[in-house]
User: Fold this.
Amino acid sequence: MKGHKKLNELASTAICGNDISSSVLYVSALAIAFAGQYAWITLLMVSFVLFLFRKIYGEVVGALPLNGGAYNALLNTTSKFMASFAATLTLLSYMATAVISANEAVHYLHHLVPSIPIIIATILLLSFFGVLTIGGVSESAKVAIGIFIFHLASFTVLSAFIIYFLANHGLQTFIQNWHLPFTGGSITKAIFLGFAASMLGVSGFESSANFVEDQQKGVFPKTLKNMWMVVSVINPLAALFALSLFSIPVLQSEPYQNTLLIEMASHVGGNWLSILIGLDAFLVLSGAVLTSFVGVSGLLERMALDRILPQYFLKKNNKGSSYRIILVFLILTVSVLLITKGNVKLLAGVYTISFLSVMTLFGIGNILLKVKRNSLPRPEKASWLAIIVAIAAVVFALIGNISMQPQEGVPSNLSVFLEYFVPAIIFITVMLNRTLLLKLLLKIIHSVFDPVRSLVLKADDKIVSLIDDINSQEFVYFTKDDDVETLNKVLLYILRNEHTKKLKVVTATKNGNPISEQFRNDIKVVDREYPKIKIEFIELDASFGPDLITKLSKEWNIPINFMFIGSPGDRFPYKIEELGGVRLII
Assistant:
């Protein structure tokens, strides 16, 4: 956040790493349930897919280092609706992650202290991290770092005890499991479903992109590498340990599916080690709740800046936190917890489909960035083969999770997902088309209330005023010497994506940028072509750059994110993040 200390590598990794590393508590058991002795292979497959996504995320966020993740990628390459579609999925993913993680954390605490009331304790845990996030991202990072280090240390201690145990007792259990006849249908199908289930272990990988503006320069790609290394080691290793300690039928039974690491700790180290792992589970799952609050704050603030969400959410406290966003998200998570009456496993479908869909859309955003914004500088590039393989793998995982047969009496993943997704996307659609809906409302009022002329006129005046207020926002397009075709694309983009009647076309003529007569004529052509938008052409004896952008934003009272440029080339003297958030539309 501007004006506040940015996060270093450890802090940034910890915030998103707690979410992805907490998967070790459940993903190994889940993979074993579907893939049996081949579970560790499916987890290594997930590691490979995540390796491909490192480049994908690195290229997109490197080119467009702004908060919002998949939303920001699609906003700068497609339309606001597609970007909002991705944002809705991301929001649902964070909502489900926060509620499920908080509830599971309290269940682990309840395992240690049975007198704790689960629902009340879950609400208190959600509220604690809501208040912590309101206190500022730097304060949140301190807590996240402590949880992350404790989690890795606890797993290291557990691993040491397991290795010592196996050194004394041998690997006969693993060998027996490996040669055990597979009874779950075909091995191919088992590995497919095991891979699909194992992909749940990468939730949180997308979070770093949602608060990249809060990170120090060069930190973002390091967070991706660190998360990949952690999940590539601990998840397959946990599956190998489990298959070396217990038989597959035991691992597929209910107690071991729910608390596998605690069972492993109790088996090799006794009661004190199981208590340590139980405490670690409570803390790292709590850290995943923190990840959700930090990630959703960056995402929704960006959406509010782009007027997809009400400007009400942009109010900040003296710590630089968008506290209204955090409070609304807290209320949302608590209400979901109460609606499900604590049975938050119903949210598994929302959690699974949402974050896998977000990863798919991020890959698609990378493709669009290559096609539409190829000249935009970026620190690294993902190969076409890597993008296609990564997207295909996530789509297969998505299909696998949708096709999994739920337990008897439990609704399917897809049906639960749609129950939450449909209302959310309707709300976003309403916000995107609010002027159209207001006009429609105006027509309805006219037809119904024409007999009561005075009432109609009053309503008419008020709504027209509201529409005019929305359309009164001016936008700015910086250009050097675009041709009429490019200017036409600019006007088409504004008509399709923004609510405005005013556009300033600005050219900075200093340092040898003369304005040709052809360009002046082209401006007049598009001005006549689009009578609904008033085009004001402005020549400035200045150099284009961050200082000019900031100066004009203050003088004209136009937010920087309502200022546009075309995609810069390799010779462009500034990085896109130095321009304060201007939008790329060509």
